[in-house]
Specification:
Layout lengths: L3 E2 H4 L11 E6 L4 E3 L3 H8 L3 E8 L4 E5 L3 H7 L6 H4 L8 E5 L11 E8 L8 H12 L10 E5 L2 E9 L6
Parallel strand pairs: 1-5
Antiparallel strand pairs: 2-3, 2-4, 4-5, 6-7, 7-9, 8-9
Length: about 170
């Protein structure tokens, strides 16, 4: 029985769901697990094949990762403006310390409010964090909550950033 096609599921395939488990079958027949950049590169060059196990309600389903471009976009290996809401450019960012919440000066992180006046929106915090690290040296917390609110002035995002990295 052949595995199902991830490509056939299109953008609905849960590439980044916590319950999706990746299996890599190498050309020598060895099997490993994981979904990192090197697994993608081996699959692109034909040195391995990637599969995903996606648990269903009563059984798990095996999928062949047969659209490596979509896999790379979902995992941030290739930039995808549609998924992230972010263009690949230097963002015009306005920020200030949040007026809400407890601002303990001994905490390594501080809450900030961020507005992007370049027209971008944040759909994927990991991608925004990577871009801000490259562009401004910010260390944006990606393991905690974040949010947004919209009004007549636009959208403002609430984030936590390592205090010492907020230099620009």
């Amino acid at each position: 029985m052949e595995p199902r096609s991830a490509a056939a599921a299109g953008k609905d395939f849960p590439y980044t769901a916590r319950t999706t488990c990746y299996i890599e079958v190498h050309e020598d027949g060895s099997v490993t697990h994981g979904n990192d950049r090197t697994a993608y590169e081996r699959a692109v060059t034909g040195k391995s094949r990637l599969f995903a196990v996606w648990p269903g309600e009563w059984s798990s389903h095996l999928f062949a990762i047969d659209d490596l471009d979509e896999y790379a976009k979902a995992h941030g290996i290739k930039h995808d403006e549609e998924r992230t809401g972010l263009k690949e450019h230097v963002h015009d960012v306005q920020w200030e310390k949040s007026s809400y919440g407890n601002d303990n000066p001994r905490s390594p992180y501080v809450s900030i409010s961020v507005s992007l006046t370049c027209g971008c929106t944040i759909h994927d915090l990991d991608s925004f964090a990577a871009q801000m690290s490259d562009q401004r040296g910010w260390a944006v917390a990606t393991s905690g909550g974040w949010g947004s609110s919209s009004g007549p002035e636009g959208t403002t995002y609430s984030l936590r950033v390592r205090r010492k990295s907020l230099t620009g």
